[in-house]
Amino acid sequence: MIPKKLKYTLAITLLALSTACLATGCKKKHDKIDLSGSQASEGTVQTAPASATIAETESSSNITIEPGIENAQSQGTSAGGSAAALSLSVQTDTYQNGNISIQYPVISDHSVKAGINEYLKENALAILKAWEIDEARDTMNITCKILSATKNRITVRYDGSVMTDGGMHPTAVFYTNTVNLSSGSDIGLSYLADPATLASYVLSDDCTFPEADAETIAAAKTFLKEENPAYYTGLFQNADFPYQGTFPESFSYEYEGSVYFSLPVPHALGDYILAAYTPENK
To answer: Does the keyword 4Fe-4S apply (predicted)?
Structure first.
C-alpha cells in the first residue's frame, strides 16, 4: 500500500536503511484522506458457521477456504449441517491487460442478489483508477484470497505489487473487501471495532504484527508512535471500501475472532504493516 506522508524516523536509521529506498515509483496521485470525516459501515451482518471451496478458473486444482470468523463462534456444527447449507461456491477470475493482472472473486451461487459479482470486481479494480495506473506502461500483479464466503457475507484479501514505468522499485499492495451479501454494502473497520480503541491499541506496547519479523516490528512501532490517537482514529474511520474517489490508506478484515488491519509505513519497512487485534484479550 502506498504510505501516508512519510516522516522518516529514527527507526529507519537504527535499521541502517538507505534513505534512497524511500523514494517511490508508484503513481498514487490521489489526495490525502480527509481524516476529519468518518465512514459509516452499512448494513447488518449475521454471522453463521460455514466454509466453502474455491475452484480456480485458471487451474484445475481446488482450494479450500480457511475457516473465517463465522466458524470461530460455532465449532460444534456437525458435518452436513447448517454450515454446508450456508456455504457458497466461489471462483476467481482475472482481469488481464498487458502487464496488469488482478484477480477477483466470482460467486456462482444463484441465491446471491444480482450485481454482487459486478460490485466485487469493481472494488477489486478500483486501485487502477485510484492510483492512476498507466495500463500500457506500468506493471501490477495482484492475487486474491477468499477468507470466508457464506450466505451472509464474503471476505476477500488482495496482495501484490505495482511497478510504475521508470520507477525505482516495486511498491507492495494490500487491500481487502468484506461485503454483506444481503444488503450489498461494504463492511468497514468501524463496524468491526471502535476506531478510538484501535488507535490507543496501535500506540500501546500490546499491538501485535503477525506477518512481520522482530526487526521490522521494532522499527515500525517507533515510526507509528510519531502520530497521535486522533490521526489513527480518523484513519480507521475512513478505512475500507466503498471507494469514493480516494483509495483508503487502511484496510481490514475479521478472521477467527481477531480483527486484522493495515497501517501505512515507509517503503523501507514494507509500505504497509498488518496489525492484529483480539478484543477479548485486550
So the answer is: no
